[in-house]
Amino acid sequence: MALRFAVMGNPIAHSLSPFIHQRFAEQLGIELSYEAIQVTDENRFASTVADFFGRGGKGLNITLPYKEKAFALAARNSFASTKAKAANTLWMDEGKLHADNTDGAGLLKDLANYCELKTKQVLLLGAGGAARGVIGPLLAAGISQLVVVNRSPEKAFHLQLDFPQIQCSPINDLKINFDLIINATSASLNSENLRLSASLLKPETLCYDLAYAKNGSTPFVNWAHSQGIVGVDGLGMLVEQAAESFYIWHGLRPDVRAVLAELKEGQND
């Protein structure tokens, strides 16, 4: 009987996680099913998670907007998820719900293909579960400054309480430019354009979108290209964080490069 896994979120139809995990399983000879489960009512998230594991589910990935709720549900949290107060990977062990956050590890592995993080000035857009998952690893990588911009000042304030090393600022108050700008908002998922000033950029600035597009580029990546700078979407991060989750569940490391190459080929079709 195939082992059952899934990804939960809203929206979820765009998710490439089922494809990625099926490819990983094929590489390593594991029989599994992996589905996308949309949870439109946030009040039903906890019961949907409980039902999944109650019916024999083995592991869940969690995406927007439920990463913070997933952390709160777990009886056992890893260091990464505790630091972030957000989780993207759930599983049961000895009758208890366990959680981890593999987003930060996935981001750093993919960013290593594009830049050296040490001493870089970084601007992070957003203060939700996606942002929380990457702040700790970014700080640990030796960046010199991390500024967070968020539409809700209250959410940014709570984020700064958890991460005193960061600075929070209204975007219109920023007077410097950055080496790396990371979009951790849901704007790209909703096909929205972020209103950013070119004054935030250096000629060598890298713009990195945690979101990805099945075909073409996200609005944030398109904006970067329109400014004449490098823009990268989160497809590489997606595959890297999925590999970390896969290892947690199966104890085996898949070949990330092969799956990422296949996805990029489809993205350019």
Would you give an account of this structure?
There is one protein chain. With 269 residues, the protein is an alpha/beta fold. The protein has 2 domains: 3-101 and 236-267, Rossmann fold (3-Layer(aba) Sandwich), CATH 3.40.50.10860; 115-233, NAD(P)-binding Rossmann-like Domain (Rossmann fold, 3-Layer(aba) Sandwich). 38% of the residues lie in helices and 22% in strands. The protein is built from 10 helices and 12 strands. The protein has a 6-stranded mixed sheet with strand order 2-1-3-5-6-4, with helices on both faces. It has a 6-stranded parallel sheet with strand order 9-8-7-10-11-12, sandwiched between helices. Strand 5 (89-93) and strand 6 (96-100) form a beta hairpin. The longest helix is centred in the last third of the chain and has 16 residues, at 235-250. The mean pLDDT is 94.
What features would you highlight for this structure?
269 residues; globular; Rossmann fold; six-stranded mixed beta sheet; six-stranded parallel beta sheet; alpha/beta; single chain; 38% helix
Summarize the structure.
This protein has 269 residues and is of the alpha/beta class.
CATH fold call of the largest domain: Rossmann fold
Strand order of the largest sheet: 2-1-3-5-6-4
The largest β sheet comes out as: 6 strands, mixed
Whole-angstrom Rg: 18 Å
By DSSP (H or I, 4+ residues per run), the number of helices equals: 10
Report the top-level CATH class of the largest domain: Alpha Beta
Proportion in β-strands: 15-25%
Count of discrete structural domains: 2
Mean pLDDT: 94
- In percent, how helical is the residue content? 25-40%
CATH homolog superfamily of the largest domain: Leucine Dehydrogenase, chain A, domain 1
Structural class: alpha/beta
